[in-house]
Design goal:
alpha/beta; Leucine-rich repeat, LRR (right-handed beta-alpha superhelix); 16-stranded mixed sheet; 18 helices; 16 strands; globular
Length: about 475
Amino acid sequence: MAWGQQRRGVDDLVAKLRANETGPALLVMSMRKVDESGLCALADALAENSSLEELLCSGHSVSEDAAKRLGQALRQNSTLKRLSVGCAQFGDAELAALLDAWENSTLEALDLEFKSLTAGGMPHLGSVLAQPSHALQDLRLGRNDLGDGGVAALAQGLRNGPLFLRNLELNSSGLGVEGCRALGKALRGSSAAQGSLRLILSDNPAIGDAGARALVGDEAAEDKDDAQHSASSASSSEVSSLSSVCELHVDACGLGAEGFASIIAASDRVGSCFHALRILAVGRNEIKEVSSVTASICATQLDGLDLRANKMGLSGLAAFGAALSKSSQTDSDAAPRLQRLNLTSIGVSVVEDPTGAGNEDFRAAVGDLLQGVSLKELRLMGNALGNDGVAILADLLRENATLETLGIGGVGLTREGAEALKTPLQENSTLRTLELGGNDLGDGKTLVDDFRAARPDLVVALDGQQQP
């Protein structure tokens, strides 16, 4: 917007909505002037529109009256599937107004992240989720101070509702042990149709190990009432195919080894809502030792594990690698399904030793890791590997036939060390992406040209930019 120019309103957008000329998505930019009359006009036009599928209207103040008008429009509109609305002052009253006429709405995704919502607004949302006619599958409530009470109210609706969510985001929501317990009961007691849930609970440090245990539960004994609830609201065939968590993010949730072990045990337990867990992110916690649950990891369906910023150190990495290697050698049928492993900033330090003798622990640890798991992605960014550590990785890659992506950004690699990678990588035809950003490599263009000459099919990523 030019200096001194008045902010544009939404009259043109209203006209496009009425004429069905917006295309499938409409973004109401923050530089537009969107007052209450403008929002009401948008809502009225939306009620008549039959082409818009996504409305992005975040960052604009919404009054209770405007929110109610928008909710009424959603009841009449059967085309819109995704909605993001309101600013940081949206609040519980505005949420209640938006949901007041929600019956028969066909909206599938609602983004209410960072909208000053509290526990007081969650019963309204829980009531919507319990409605037999709701279509919501994607609900984003991160960065709202909901607390355990708010999450419990939401969970009650999820438990009673006909269609379980496919994506639920509660990051930075003040969630603790009791909220996790309510969520766990909702998972185990829901009579929803079979589906896969992506559950984001990161940045809730009050969860801790106790919260992790409460979330995954002891489904054999703890919740007989949940089984009775399910049986009373669904047939036996429906109960046997409840929704399951396929992706769980509990980064920075105060977890230790015990909480991590509880989640892994649940994912290894037949009949658990976590038995189909494929992606687990437990970064930025206090998990220093994982080798004791390696056998259980090998028995799960996990193919993505994110352990970033857990200070395992070289000893923890070595124990993990050795346990993986042992499991794969003991029982080939129990070989882990892991394909993506993130070990960024786990406190590994490789000693610079001209003789190389001091680096054998790192060589053994990574060697065991690559032997025990058919990894496609391995990220070791932020560890003090230096040129010696990277040289060891390169040497191990000579005979590796599975790894496609290697992340070694910010590991203290120099231009000299990077140059030494070329020859080993010529012998490896599997690696497709090499992430080198955050290292002091000098002229990036000439380095990429050098790698291109050695491996024309290799993509080299430097500081966020991929250069084929």
